Amino acid sequence: MAGFQPAITINEAMQRIKNNEYLLPAFQREYVWKPWQIEELFDSLMRGYPISSMLFWQVKDESKTAWKFYRFLEYYRERYHTHNDYFNTSSHKDFYAVLDGQQRLTSLYLALFGHYDIHRSHHKRENDDKNFKICDFYFNLTQSKKPENENVEYEFLWLDKVETKEQDIYIDKYQQKWFKCKSIYNIADINEIMEISENSNLQKEERKRLSEFHTLIFNTKDRSKINFYLEEEKNPDKAVNIFIRINSNGESLDYSDILFSIAIANWNKIDARTEINNLVDKINENFKISKDLILKGFLYLFHQNIKFQINSFDKNFIEFIETKWEDIKNAFIETFKLLRSFGFEAKTLSSNNAVLPILYFIYHKNLTNNIVESVGCQENRELIKKWLLRVIIFKPFGGSGDTVLTNMRKAFIKEFKQNEVFFDREIELFPLQEIEKEAKYNQKIDDDFLKDNVLVHRKSSSEAFAVLALLYPNLDYKNNDFDKDHLHPESAYVKYEKIYKEKNEGYWNFQVYDSLLNLQMLDKNENKSKKDKPLKQWVDENCKDDRKAFLEKHLIPDVDLSLENFNEFLEARERLMIDKLKEKLNLY
Asked: Which of 13, 190, 295, 365 is most exposed, with minimal Cβ within 10 Å?
């Protein structure tokens, strides 16, 4: 019967998850809790604080096949294991879909049955066990030392298996005894607690805390039990509406999460959640996007209104997108492959919005299979790269991305109408100038603009990459065979500072030394051979018989290149770069 049901213990809920009696509907968002949130959840439970009621939907009959359902995570690894496994419910017994409470239930399940993998500082961002602390959940039975988290009374922590050796009772360097929470399932009753206490030499207070934890899991007191409301409505659409109504006002759920929920719930033949997640994962091998960009891509390609609004993702639109999915997916992949061939990656593509006009052109001009490699697309590749580098430099999106994107689309078609045409004239080449004019960021580039807004960028910035790629176009960007390099080496800054202090002259701070004024783009092998050589020495050794041509190639001013003359060099380099950038950037 629908309504609030008798509260259940934590163990009862965990067993239902293990037995796939609790599943997650396709429109449920993924797990997002951080380790500290799980630790504080258990502290709250131990202190007898109630956790909010949950909402379950009883799924039976035809509803089992109306949506796709997923199992709870058995372990979590940021970025690499965040997706729930699909569970085929066509022949499954009746079950409950969790509409509200997934984050809390997953947290309990990971703590009691799984593990949480935390990236090791200063290790590679690769999916390899050596780059992660594979952690079990532990409860501090001793707590003689002040907890790391001052908000808690009962200390729980995710501890690395390398440190704990996966022991049921782990003793830290402060002689505190920590109990591995999943081992609670090896303790049947109070007699076994006494046996463990004796074997592990637990003191009275430690034994008491272990007993309290056992009670929390198996004989949960009423105030800490899991309360839930059961919805028995058979209409699946109502389940979606309930989910949206519950979550649309929450702070932690983005609006795009709700739209994603609606979108994937309305695909009939394709497992949208898995497909979109896989696409995002593939692109993120080199870039950093979220499902938001895929959703925005749907709108940008086919919808009159590109703003995120629930009524934009009606059933007809989503069903139409499903029919186009393979082509859309391939266009996304090839678009990002094209960007990678330009030398872009996550840290240099500062605006994912900039991808969408490129995607629009590639998709609607049927260039997906040719844009990256075809000789016939060479001119379009050059125009797209030039436009994208300019976008990174000029930064047109600001805080009004949707408005700018809508205006940019007018370069292809002034009045976009759904399911009709996508160009209002013959367009063979990517319309760089038209896009800039429609978005109103085309401008005359003068000295002040370049000094104040461009040349100040430092080596690690995406803008520095864009400027250098524009100034040094002939390197092998496709194979990532390039490096940003300090002309006067970074390691020489301290020496430069000392020289000018001794001369009692003003010197530039490191922010200027590290800026574009002292940067170039080099072939990787050339940069390896240069290393930390003084600029004057490097030029003298490599200019051969044509110093002038070498300096012009590397955009180095023909002045005294010793470190003692850095200030004059910087002034001359600024003039050289301003002249070259005005030549490159002034199209109008």
From this structure: 190
